Amino acid sequence: MTKWVYSFGGGEAEGSREMRNLLGGKGANLAEMASLGLPVPPGFTITTEACNFYYANGQEMPEGLTEQVEAALARLEEIQGKSFGGGELPLLVSVRSGARSSMPGMMDTVLNLGLNDDTVEELAKSADRRFAYDSYRRFIQMYSDVVLGVDHHEFEAILEEERDTRGVAGDTDLSADDWVEIVKRFKALVDEVHGAPFPQAPRDQLWGAIGAVFSSWMNARAITYRRLHDIPESWGTAVNVQAMVFGNMGEDSATGVAFTRDPATGEKALYGEFLINAQGEDVVAGIRTPQYLTEKARTEAGSDSPSLETLMPEQFAEFLAHSNRLEEHYRDMQDMEFTIERGRLWMLQTRNGKRTTRAALKIATSMAEEGLISEEEAVMRIEPTSLDQLLHPTLDPKAERTVIARGLPASPGAASGEIVFSPDRADFLTKEGHTVILVRLETSPEDIQGMVSARGILTSRGGMTSHAAVVARGMGKPCVCGAGALKIDHKTNTMLVMGKAYHEGDLITIDGATGEVMEGRVAMLQPEVSGDFAKLMVWADRTRRMRVRANAETPEDARAARDFGAEGIGLCRTEHTFFQDDRIVAMREMIVAEDAESRRSALAKLLPLQRQDFLELFQTMRGLPVTIRLLDPPLHEFLPKGEHEIAEVAEAMGADPARLRDRILELTESNPMLGSRGCRLLLLHPEIPEMQTRAIIEAAQHAARLTGEPVVPEIMVPLVGMLGEFERVKAVIDATAKEVNASGEPKIEYKVGTMIELPRAAIRAREIASAAEFFSFGTNDLTQTTFGISRDDAASFLTHYQELGIIEKDPFVTIDVDGVGALITLSVREGRMGRPDLKLGICGEHGGDPASIRFCEDAGLDYVSCSPYRVPVARLAAAQAVIGKKTASSETA
Ligand code: ADP
Ligand code: MG
Ligand code: MG
User: Which of 481, 572, 843, 866 is catalytic?
Assistant: First the structure.
C-alpha cells in the first residue's frame, strides 16, 4: 500500500528535509524541525504523489488516503489531548499547501479548521468567548474564500458595516457579542452566495480544504507562475494539516516572521517583525503596524513600540537559539514563522530566505569566512544574472517619480537625460556636454553612433530582440523599447503622451529594468563593486577553467571590460566604427565603387581612421589578446538611402548622382543576410582585407612601441562555409602582414582564424582547422542558419512555439543544445583533429548566458566572450559550470 501521509510532531517525524519532492518544501522542513526537537505543532503531510494521483485519475482521491488521514488525525488527537469534530476540547487545524519550491500562485492557507456552531462554544468555554468567535469568523471567511469561492471582499464589506454602525475603528474594539453577530451574517452570506449552508462537519471541512489545495495546483495563477519559473506541472503540491496554535489569545500571545540575517543587506543579525495578540495572516495583511523583534532594529528604525526582546525576553531568547540552530543546520539564511500562544513559543515554518543580490553576496562570503560553507558553495549560492542589478545605475527606490509610459525592460539600468530625436543630435549635444536620451520609433544600424553617445535609448516600437534592445544590451546601456503609448513624430520632433507634448531638451528618465518612462530627473544610485562582490569574483576566478573575454569596439567599452575583469577581446566588430561621423560616406564610396582603383581611393580614406581605432583599443588592452573580425555586414546596411545620402556620396566621389542610383540598384539584393556579406564580400573586394590587415598590423606595431606590451591580434574571417574561402582571404591577410612587418617595427605576431556560423563550416571543421588557427562560434548567426529562422522576424512565432511547448527556451537567448549545440560539439571534435592546439571560443550573445556558458564548459571551449557589462556574470557562470560539471560526474560515478 502506498504511503500517502507522513506525520510529524511530538519530537519525531516520518519525513525529513531530504523528502522535499514528496512532501513539498513546507512539509519537509516542518518534519525536519520536528526531528530536531524544535517546538512544532504536530500535524501531517499528504504527499505530492497523492496530488499527482488525483489529477491522473479524474480528480479522485487515491485509495487508502482516507484511512491514512484518519490514522494521522487520531495520532494528532492523542498528542494534543483534543478531539477533532466534538468533545470538550476541540482540535483545530490549519490546512496549508506546499509545493517543492514556494509558489505565490497557490491556495491560501485555511486556519482554525474544525470550528462549527458547537465547537465554537466549547472553545469559548476553555478559552474566551471573544477569541472563540473571532477565530470562527476568520475561519468562515478564509474557508469560504478559498474553498467555496465566496469573495473575501464581501466579508470585508460586512465587517466594515458592523464597525461603522458601532462607531469603532479597529477589530480589537469589537466585543464577543459583536463577533457572534458577525458570524451570523457571515453564515447567511455563504448560504446566499454559495447556495448551501456553511459546512458544519469538521471532516467535510477538512476534505473540502484538501481538495481545494489539490485544485489550486491547476488554477490560472499557479499555471502562469509555473510557466514563468520553469516549474514542471508534474511536481504537484503537498497538503499540510497541522494543529493550530493561537497567537491571538491575549497580550501574552503573538505571531511573527523573522530572518536569521538581514535580507536587504545580508548583515548577520536576527531581523524580523511581530504582532501581539494576532494570528498569522495579520502580519502579512499589513492591517496593523508590526513591531521589531530586536532592540537594535527598533532603535535603528526609531520606533516607540517595544521589541519582543524587551516584551518577552524569555521567548525571544528561545527563538534566537532556534534560529541560530536552524541556520547552522541548513547552512543558509533562514526565513521563519513563529507564534507565541500564552507565553509558549511555536515554530511554524522555516525555509531558505529570499534576499537582494547585495545581501546574497554578503551572506555567501561571510558564511564562507565563518566556515559554515566552503568557497565553492559560496560561489554556487549567487545567481549569475542577479549580478546585473549591481552593474548599472539604478533608481533610488525612495525617489518620487511620475510614470508617463511603460515599455519593455530591454536593457537594465536607469538613465536621465534630455530628449533627442535623432542620432546626429544625440552625438552633437553629447559633444557639447549634454546628457541625452535618444528617443526613436525604432533604431537601425546607422543610429549606432547616436546610441553610443546617448545615455539611454527609448523606442515606441520593437520587442526584446529588436535592434535597439540587442545593441543597447551589448553596450550595457539602459533601454526601454516598444513603449507603444508614446506617439513619436520624427517630422515635428515631438513625443506625445497622455495629452502632453515633449520636445528636444525636455528631461525624462527611463528604467531599463522595469520598462518605466518617467518625466523629469529621478535620483539614482551608482553601481558599486563592493568588497563582497570583488571577493566572490576572486573565488570564482580561482575555480573557473574557461577564460572570459568581452565583445568591444570602442576604447570606452574595452576599458569597462578590463575593469570588469575581461581577459581579452573576443570580438571587435570593425564595421561598427564605420557608421561613425563622416566615415560612413567613405564607406559608401567604397561599397558602390565600380572598380578596384576607386575602391582603393575610398579605402585609403578609411585606413588612418581604422588604424587609430585599433591603436586605442590595443593600448587599452595592452598585452591581452584581441580578436578583430574583418568587415562582415550585408551590403544593404551601407548603401546610401534617399536623395540626400545619394547626393552626399556622389559629391564625395565626384560621380553623377543618376549613375550612382543605377549602381545602387545593381547592388541591391533580395536576401541581403544571405547575400554578399562576410568573406564573400572580402573575396569580391580583396582591397578590403588588405586595408584592414594593414590597419591592424600597423596599429599593433605602434601600440607595441608605445606600451612595450605587444598585443597578439587575432584576425577573424566571418561567414566562412568552405575551406577555399578561408584560404583565399588568409592569403591576402598573410601577404599584407608580411609586407607591413617587412617595412615596420617591431614584427607583429598574429593569428588568422574564422567564425563558425554556418552549418557547413561546423560540419567541415576538420579541414577548415587545417588552415585556421582559431574558431569563434558566432552563435547568433549559427542559430539563425541552423534553424533557418531570422532573429529579427522571430518574435511573433517563437513566443507561440513556447506556448505550444515546441521549444522550451528562446534559442537566441539560451543555446539550443540539441541542434546548434550538437554542431558546436561536432566542430570542436573535428576541429581539434585538424589542429590539436586549435583555440576555441564563443562570441554570440550566448556568451553571456549562464546556461549557454555551462554548455560551453561541457563542450570544452577555451573562452567565452560577451558584452563588457556581462563579464562578471560570465566569470561567475564559468566557475559554476566547473563545479556543476564536477557534481554531475560524481553523481553518475
Ligand atoms: P504562506 O505560505 O502563505 O506563508 P502558511 O501556510 O505558511 O502560508 O500560513 C499562513 C500563515 O498562517 C502564516 O503566518 C503561518 O504561520 C500561519 N499558520 C499556518 N498554520 C498555522 C497553525 N497551525 N497555527 C498557527 N498559525 C498557523
Ligand atoms: Mg508561510
Ligand atoms: Mg555573424
Answer: 843
